[in-house]
Amino acid sequence: MRSTNVTHPSRVKIGSSTVKSISIQNEDSFKYLELSFDSHGFLTSITEKDINTTYNFRQGFFYYKGMGNSTQPSGAYIFRPAVQEAVAVAGTIKIDVIKGNLVEEVRQTLTPWLSQIIRLYKNSTHIEFDWVVGPIPKEENREPISKEVVTRYFTDIHSEDIFFTDANGRQMMRREVNKYSSFKYDNTEPVAGNYYPISNRIYIKDAARIHRPLAVEIFNKPIIAFALLKNVTKFRQEHNLQLITEKSSNILFECHSKIISEESR
């Protein structure tokens, strides 16, 4: 019988963070990436170690209250917020930090129905965001609220209201907030009107940086996303549409994102 060499995993350290700030990195002190988190467990910055440059980078979860009593309510095929301002998902984040030879990750539990893992693989130039949303709870003792859960990535990139999404996984299409080339844009629903379906990726870039353009590229499963502000990219993740179907409140949604910070292609 042919022998097989088996490499056993090294010991992994697991623990809850009680310090003022934490960080994870992939590889040595001079290569790849380092992520920094504040004392509340939120991601605050990304450092490219090979050029010793740090970028402000934050991420958070929000939800829009969906249009309910309407002839066109927010649903599985229509994204239609009742108001244009999103509500932040409140709660104290529980943090677990895991560090091993192959991967370092921060596990965040925001609520009983929302958790996320931010992961760095060794020898890799991307960051992985792995979140789980649902079942989204419904309100007790009052009328249920339809919820459209989104995540937002905040950067210091000055994109000038321009972003790019893939066309069914093929070429990248230039988009501009509140503008369309094929027809006159009617700004009656600015949030829904600026969401685009993406099969593969979305990115924004800093046009002001001439010598080394800065870009953030997000790879994702099929979902819809948009960049409504100059430096914010948003993803619609999950919806809890109580006024349409009770079944939607039991959906468990998983999504995986990869973010790459590098020179614009």
Automatic annotation (TrEMBL):
<dbReference type="GO" id="GO:0006013">
    <property type="term" value="P:mannose metabolic process"/>
</dbReference>
<dbReference type="InterPro" id="IPR011013">
    <property type="entry name" value="Gal_mutarotase_sf_dom"/>
</dbReference>
<dbReference type="GO" id="GO:0030246">
    <property type="term" value="F:carbohydrate binding"/>
</dbReference>
<dbReference type="Pfam" id="PF07748">
    <property type="entry name" value="Glyco_hydro_38C"/>
</dbReference>
<dbReference type="InterPro" id="IPR011682">
    <property type="entry name" value="Glyco_hydro_38_C"/>
</dbReference>
<dbReference type="GO" id="GO:0004559">
    <property type="term" value="F:alpha-mannosidase activity"/>
</dbReference>
<dbReference type="InterPro" id="IPR050843">
    <property type="entry name" value="Glycosyl_Hydrlase_38"/>
</dbReference>
<feature type="domain" description="Glycosyl hydrolase family 38 C-terminal">
    <location>
        <begin position="31"/>
        <end position="207"/>
    </location>
</feature>
<protein>
    <submittedName>
        <fullName>Glyco_hydro_38C domain-containing protein</fullName>
    </submittedName>
</protein>
<dbReference type="GO" id="GO:0005764">
    <property type="term" value="C:lysosome"/>
</dbReference>
